[in-house]
Amino acid sequence: MVRQASGVMSIPATVSFDNQLPASWMAHYNCADVSMVTSGYTSRLWSQDHHPQNWTKYQVWEWLQQTLDMHQIDATSIPFQNFDLDGRQLCNMSFQDFTRSAGSVGAILFQSLTDLKWNGQYGQTDMVIPGDIKTEIDADFPCSILPFKEEPSFYSPSELFDIKSSFQPNVTLASPAPSSPDPKRSQVKRHNPRGTHLWEFIRDILLNPERNPGLIKWEDRSEGVFRFLKSEAVAQLWGKKKNNSSMTYEKLSRAMRYYYKREILERVDGRRLVYKFGRNARGWRESEK
DNA sequence: AGGCCTTTTCCTGGTT
DNA sequence: CAACCAGGAAAAGGCC
Asked: What is the pTM of this model?
């Protein structure tokens, strides 16, 4: 049987980088309003009225992640702890500081920051994404589509609600960063970026109510119970993300059922299209203190 | 190269 | 009957 290529990306289930983030980042992350972070955050991050100079450490971290994602650079290839800085400190770094802190990737980071400082927008120089949706795509799909699609515009603007996972630290980075900038480790590593797991994709739709066109809704926000309103539409969107035009709710739901065993989801009996986040699902609570 | 992991695909059978 | 739900089985791909 010939099966369709799907361009699947996956992340080891066991990855966690909670212990790699500087304490200050985690503190910020824990205190952050998740809905703010996932919806308007990225656009605010790039906007003129939020100059890099004024970034918090957490925003620096966000920028770092998104820039790496844009360039398909493995996040583990740079020592994140060298960027435990706020925006002011970051803006004071010279080109040499960047290369010292991140090897060859430092040049890319320097370029990104320079663009943001002077243009208020990144990607003026080398991005191939056309038009007005560029920034939005970059921000919203930091690690999903660029690597496989030459033309990310296959996402129509209406589909550009945030499907992003970058705000969730425990899935985006895979392994401990090296303690010092090793030139070999710091080389640009062109491999497939971390994809988003299905449950994260679902979660991120839920966390963007204002931009989620009635696909999934919370049934019980505090308990993590949610319901699919447009099951096939969600499946189609998931399929698009995976470059798989034959995705259906039937198949998506099979993948969802595999999460029961791993306690990422809990079964909700007797209610059609209803699921509940389990103890191993992260990042969906309003406050995760 | 091979094993692990997360889906994807298909299927049988049951339920709403 | 259509749309779901439950899982088994096998395989696709990606990653290490």
From this structure: 0.48
How would you list the strands of the sheet with A274-277, edge to edge?
A216-220, A225-228, A274-277, A265-266
* C10 C1' closest Cα residue: A1
CA A3 to C1' B9 (Å) is 8
A265 touches strand B (CB under 7 A): no
Residues A105-125 pLDDT 10s: 887 888 778 777 765 554 433
Cα separation, A174 vs A167, in Å, equals 14
pLDDT, tens digit (0-9, with 9 covering 90-100), for A26-69: 333 332 222 223 332 333 333 444 677 777 776 777 777 777 76
